[in-house]
Amino acid sequence: MYTHEFTGRAPSGAQIKAHVKRAVAAGHRQIEIRWGENWIELEKRESNGFFGPWFGHGWIRRTGGDDIAREISRC
What we know:
This protein is an alpha+beta fold and 75 residues long. The chain is 31% helix and 45% strand. It has helices at residues 13-25, 65-74; strands at 2-6, 30-35, 38-47, 50-60, 63-64.
């Protein structure tokens, strides 16, 4: 599981996506990004021995986990 916590001012959508892309490139199937009490969790689930699309939950500012999941599932 990849976990990153931002401190200080709110991260931009680009900063969040950069950490997600880094985690995906490293082969992580569970990703957690936090900023204070806000969070985004992403997960790539396995079904019948195959990995399906990404699922996302939570939000940080205007960036939603489901939006990021859809974006990285297309790649």
